[in-house]
Amino acid sequence: MRKPTEQSAERSVPTSADVARLAGVSRATVSYVLNNTAAVRISEPTRRRVREAAEELGYVPHAAARSLRAGHSRMVLLPTAHVPIGPLYSQFFNELQWSLRRLDYTVVQYGSLGLEADEAARAWAELRPVAVVSLGQVQLTPQGVEILKRSGAKAVITLGSQRVEGAHALVMDQGRVGRVAAEHLVEVGRRRIGVVVPEEPGLEMFAERRLEGARQAVAGTGATVVPLPLRYEEDSANELAGRWRALGLDAVFAYNDEYAMLLMRALQDAGISVPEETAVVGSDDLLLGRLLRPRLSTVQIDMVIGRHLAELVDSAVRDPESVPEARDLLASRVVRRESS
Amino acid sequence: MRKPTEQSAERSVPTSADVARLAGVSRATVSYVLNNTAAVRISEPTRRRVREAAEELGYVPHAAARSLRAGHSRMVLLPTAHVPIGPLYSQFFNELQWSLRRLDYTVVQYGSLGLEADEAARAWAELRPVAVVSLGQVQLTPQGVEILKRSGAKAVITLGSQRVEGAHALVMDQGRVGRVAAEHLVEVGRRRIGVVVPEEPGLEMFAERRLEGARQAVAGTGATVVPLPLRYEEDSANELAGRWRALGLDAVFAYNDEYAMLLMRALQDAGISVPEETAVVGSDDLLLGRLLRPRLSTVQIDMVIGRHLAELVDSAVRDPESVPEARDLLASRVVRRESS
DNA sequence: ACGTGTCAGTGACACGTGTCAGCACTGTGT
DNA sequence: ACACAGTGCTGACACGTGTCACTGACACGT
Hints:
- 2 copies of one chain form a homodimer.
- Chain A is an alpha/beta fold.
- Chain A has 3 domains: 16-61, lambda repressor-like DNA-binding domains (434 Repressor (Amino-terminal Domain)), CATH 1.10.260.40; 73-172 and 304-330, Response regulator (Rossmann fold), CATH 3.40.50.2300; 174-301, Response regulator (Rossmann fold, 3-Layer(aba) Sandwich).
- The first copy, chain A, is built from 13 helices and 12 strands.
- Chain A has helices at 16-23, 27-34, 44-57, 63-70, 87-102, 117-126, 142-150, 174-187, 204-218, 234-242, 244-247, 257-269, 305-318, and strands spanning 75-80, 106-111, 131-134, 155-160, 168-172, 192-198, 224-230, 251-253, 279-283, 297-301, 327-328, 332-335.
- In chain A, the strands form 2 sheets. A 6-stranded parallel beta sheet of chain A has the order 2-1-3-4-5-11, with helices on both faces. In chain A, strands 7-6-8-9-10-12 form a 6-stranded mixed beta sheet, with helices on both faces.
- In chain A, β3 (131-134), α7 and β4 (155-160) form a beta-alpha-beta unit.
- Chain A is elongated and about 85 Å long.
- Chain A starts with 15 loop residues before the first helix and ends in a 5-residue tail after the last strand.
- Mean pLDDT of chain A is 89; it is low at 1-10.
- At the A-B interface, α4, α5, β2, α6 and α7 of A face α4, α5, β2, α6 and α7 of B.
- β2 of chain A pairs antiparallel with β2 of chain B, so a sheet runs across the interface.
- The first copy, chain A, binds a DNA duplex through residues 15-17, 25-29, 31-32, 35, 37, 39-43, 46, 61-62, 64-71.
């Protein structure tokens, strides 16, 4: 009764030593049994005793101790700042998470709101993740990448259009979205095509690429592209619609279904007929776009990036030297409704 | 030149021992300096040498080792399954993250997609978080709570309308949203009020409470409430609109601006005039709702929960026995536009 | 009686960190 | 000359885990 092991220290969390004591075996045996270590043979009765003891104590291994001993973890860190919204992102994210779990990684999102670039990198490095996937919300510097790699990260991967020295990159071909939209508009006979460029921060890298894609699509067709800065507010849209005739456009690719809806309403309120006078095309195929009259034409995007990205992570972890510089084509097609 | 410490073991992660060696001091001193331990006095020149050595090696402390030694962490775990979308959630989430950081907690989101309840709890427990905030996407059982508490979690907090034995709860008064909506509709003279109940999984707990709130609001006024199951699809909305006249409703609170927009369009297509024949009220005050004609009336919700929740976490960690059973009123008001 | 082999399990170390007790010096008062 | 306090630093332990080298016990063939 002098040892405080049994019930007196009730509130301390059980360790594998406690399990070993209860099962009457050594700690090593406990480890072998609970991890199903193949190279060691333990008799079935002993296995049962260990498992029952673990169950009874409610033993849960200590991840930190485990990865400390192992010298590495299977943690993939996903820095998060302002959560982007929308079903597309949600789908991508779920797919990434799911695919990484299948590959036996643990996905951890780390809130990095309000941290400066290298400060953030240091915070991430403390967790010793095996890989870091940056969605471009926190700007990653080459120094940041160096910090992470030095801390043992096998792979640092940037997603999107940014490219950082030392990091792997999965380039999303956002340009493709602009390209198919502009191609469609040219095909239906439009000549002067506006391209909405959102002014909201954090969207630049998508917007710029889509604009660029549209430019490529019209090259050599005689059509032209005009960038149109727009904030996601009614006033901004009305202001733009007010000087629409002066711009002399007969079509607009509006970055997004949301921006498209906003702009289309403003155009109609300003007396501009859609699609006769101006065609409107959005992107993402939101259900809400189908509710407007005319129904909104849109670019439908297949989000298969999640699985690609997961595989990129895995191969980069296995062999950090291989730099596949993957590129995803963002398979996308125009769904023509009534607004174009 | 026989020690592989300097450049030959280049690729190994620097530890505090390496820093100590380079600075020519003991490891203890390094720890004291880098943590600014108040109770120990170290001369300024030594401090500088240590800091410079740490800088030169790119030393980053090992969070796992640290929390292993400390016996506790400042990690708040936020299980994530299907990411809910929408600006409201985004705002809440950023606020929570920000507030917890100010209280010196580290927020970690853990992807728990596809895990069963207690399996998930065990996975979380491995990380030994000091607190777990469950948003109700993964159903938490009393056993799950027990597992977490036994693993050292000081606070297990559920957010939303679920309540779990053993866990603290921050009850969001979702009923309030339904209440103000229904009150408004009664006030403008409506008598038979439909309340849309989304059939999508994961929304039940919100939907049920809002319905309940609407029921409370009409009690004693002579008005009645009719629940209307609806999927977020055009077909479902059209089907509902097709039998609208048979339902004999003169108003509907549609759970959401999105559902409201969907339903309103279907009603109009079915020849039912809004708001004359049927008034429509949504919730969340999406910008897009203002684009429809008539403009959508909506319930505007103040999301101040983030800070409340952070404070609840902190107080629960400080004194796990205190059970404040907090309740948030979801301060909300109707913004009347043209659809009601 | 002795080497050889298999089975079932154990003891001890290392991972990187924080902290406690203690040690060598130096000044300071008597 | 000695006690005493203060300063600046170090040695050693503990946290919980995985794994390697090793040990007793027993069976078998000669």
